[in-house]
Amino acid sequence: MKRLLQRACMACACLLPFTAAMAQSATTATVAKPPDRRIAITFDDLPWATLDSNTPLPAHGTVPPRIAAEFTRLLQAIKNSGTPAIGFVNSARLLVHGQPQPDRVGMLDAWLDAGLELGNHTATHVDLHAVGKQAFENDILACDAVLRPLLAKRDLQPHWFRHPYLRTGRTLQDKAAIKTFLTRHGYRIAPVTITDSDWIWAAAYAKALDSGDTAMQAKLRAQYVPYLLRMVHYFEHRSTKLLGYALPQVMLLHANALNADTYADFVSRLHARGYRFVSLDEAMRDPAYQRADTFTGALGTSWIHRWAIAAGWSWKFYDGEPTSPKWVIDLAGVPAYSE
Fold it and tell me: Any stretches that span the bilayer, and where are they (predicted)?
C-alpha cells in the first residue's frame, strides 16, 4: 500500500506542470484581446464654419472678435490634446469683396503652425448634385489655386479632398469622372465613417451664445459629448459587424464654437475608451478603404453604410443610429428631417 501511495504521488507530481500549463492556456484563451481602436479627426469648413464674405465686419480686420477667440480656443484644444487633425478648406471664406484677407489667411497659417494638415473642400462648399460635374470641378480648382500656394510656402502639397454634404455623384459615371479628375490633380477622396449632426448642435449653441444663456450653453456642452460618443460606439459596432474588426475610423466635425469648447472633454473620453488618435493617412491604409463605394443618393451617409449597401446588406443593418434630441433641433431652428 505504501508503494502504491508513493507511485500515486509521483504521478500527480508529474502531472502538475502539465495541469498548470493547461490552466494558464485556458486563462489566456478566455482573456480577449482588446480591439485596436483608432480614429482620425477631420474638421470641415475651415477657416471657420460661420465665416463668409457677408459676415459683419469689425472696425479692424475682417474676422469678428468672437470668431477669432473661438478659433483660438479650438486650435489650443487640439494642440493641448496632442491629436493629429486635418482641416478642409472652403477658400471663399478667406475672401471679402473677392479679395483674400490677411487675417483670414492667418487662421490657416496658425493651423499649419500647430502641425495640423489642410485639405480641399471646394471654394464655395458647392453641392455636386445641384451644380453638376463641370461647375463642381471648377470650384475644386478655385480652392486649389488658393490652397496650393499656401502649402507650397512650407514645402507641402494638398493631398486630400472632402465632398461638401458628402454628396459624391448622382451616377456611377459622375463618381468615376470626379475621382479621375481629383487623381489627375493629386487628390484622394477623404471618406467619413463616423457621421454626426454636430452642425445642428452648433447652431443651437450659437443661439445660446448670442442670447447669453449660460445655463443652456452648459446643458448643450454636457449632452453634446455623450451624443458624439454614442455615434462613435454605433459606427464602431457597425464596422465590426460588417468587417469583423474595429475599423480605423474617420470622423467628421466642423470648425465651430461648440467643438472648440468640448474637444478636450471628447478626446479625454475617447482615450478612456481605448482609442488612439491617428492621421488620416494612417487610417486610410486599412484595406477596407479600398472597398467599392457605389452610393449615388443625396444622403450624406457613412462609408460603412455605403460598403454595406454595395455588399447587399439589408436595411436592418442601419437600425439604431443615434439622433439629436428634439429640443436641440428645435433650438437650432432646423427642420427635423435634416437629421
Answer: none
Q: What is d(CA 180, CA 226) in angstroms, rounded to the nearest whole number?
A: 39
Q: In this structure, which amino acid lies at residue 152?
A: A
Weakest mean pLDDT among 7-11, 213-217, 244-248, 278-282: 7-11
Task: Provide the whole-model pTM.
Answer: 0.89
* Domains annotated on the chain, with CATH: 38-338 (3.20.20.370)
Q: What confidence tier does 59 reach under pLDDT thresholds 50, 70, 90?
A: low
Q: How far apart are CA 143 and CA 108, in angstroms?
A: 13
Q: Please say if the pLDDT value at position 241 is more than 80.
A: yes
* 169 in Cβ contact with 132 (< 8 Å): no
Q: How far apart are CA 167 and CA 184, in angstroms?
A: 20
Q: Extract the C-alpha cell encoding 62.
A: 475682417
Those residues whose C-beta lies under 8 Å from the C-beta of residue 144, and which sit 6 or more positions away, are: 120, 158, 185
